[in-house]
Amino acid sequence: MRLVRLATDVDAVHAERAAADVTILQPPADMDFGRCFTA
After folding, report:
1. Domain boundaries, the chain
2. How far apart are CA 4 and CA 6, in angstroms?
3. CA 31 to chain CA mean position, Å
4. N or C: which end of the chain has fewer CB within 10 A?
5. DSSP 25-38
6. pTM, entire model
């Protein structure tokens, strides 16, 4: 399944997901297209 969510504060969304015990596959990182993470 692929879900894309646009967020202005990627780190805050990452923290919310991690606190909810969502498996984080790739922590937040700066990419050529912007900041993202994979869960």
Report:
1. 1-39
2. 7
3. 12
4. N
5. SEEEEEETTEEEEE
6. 0.79
